[in-house]
Amino acid sequence: MRTHKLDGESLTPDAVCEVAEGRVGEVEVRLSESALKRMERSRRFVEQAVSRRMVIYGLTTGFGANADKVIDTKQVRQLQRNLIESHCCGVGEPFGREVVRAAMLIRANSLAKGASGVRPQLVDLLCGALNRGLVPVVPSRGSVGASGDLVPLAHMAFVLTAPPDAEMRQKERLLAAKARAGKLSSEEKREARRLSGLAWFWRDGWHLASG
């Protein structure tokens, strides 16, 4: 099995394609030691900034027109969750498996640069999902301004932070919308019939389904 170590610098287009198209047991991704150390340093800065009540846009303040509103330290976590949920407004056909896996890998590699202040566990979680073959449902339509990936990334992140049945509800909504439009494929019709019989498990922030 081929292993790709993410360091935020050396990921190649060929590696992206290999991971995007790969199956469980064929390829795996991990956070490199150098990236881990950088991420830990930047995370310490974030935690210190919050504890010292420093004013940092999007971390201890609101967004956009609310940038001048300072957020209480007790509400910082909820602020981040609200941002994700408010951008989960995509519509249309879900992206294909390879597209979502490529996006997950590229985002994990970008975070591995250690400049975002996120915990290393977030990259570990994305890598773990890729290694286990878990793919979020990400609608293909819907974006916000110049940052066109905010809505798709919000759907990806939502699965990391959502309650246990969130992914099932999301899939049900997408299938229901396609059913109303008469656009369900034979495979999707079988999936819709199967949904009520799925066993869903909560582990490491992801939803694992077994028929």
Order of helices and strands: EHEHHEHHEHHHEE
Percentage of residues in strands: 5-15%
Instruction: Note the quaternary state here.
Output: single chain
CATH topology of the largest domain: Fumarase C, Chain B, domain 1
What number is the mean pLDDT?
A: 80
pLDDT < 50 runs, ≥5 residues: 194-211
Instruction: Tell me which CATH architecture of the largest domain applies here.
Output: Orthogonal Bundle
- Name the CATH superfamily classification of the largest domain: Fumarase/aspartase (N-terminal domain)
Number of domains: 2
Distance between the termini: 27 Å
Helix content estimate: 40-55%
Description of the molecule:
- The chain is an alpha+beta fold and 211 residues long.
- It has helices spanning 13-21, 33-51, 76-86, 97-111, 120-132, 150-161, 166-180, 186-195; strands at residues 2-6, 27-31, 91-94, 139-141, 199-203, 206-210.
- The chain has a two-stranded parallel ribbon.
- α3 crosses α6, α4 runs antiparallel to α5 (120-132) and α7 (166-180) crosses α8 (186-195).
- The longest helix is centred in the first third of the chain and has 19 residues, at 33-51.
- The radius of gyration is 18 Å and the shape is flat.
- 22% of the residues are buried.
- The model is unreliable at 194-211 (pLDDT under 50).
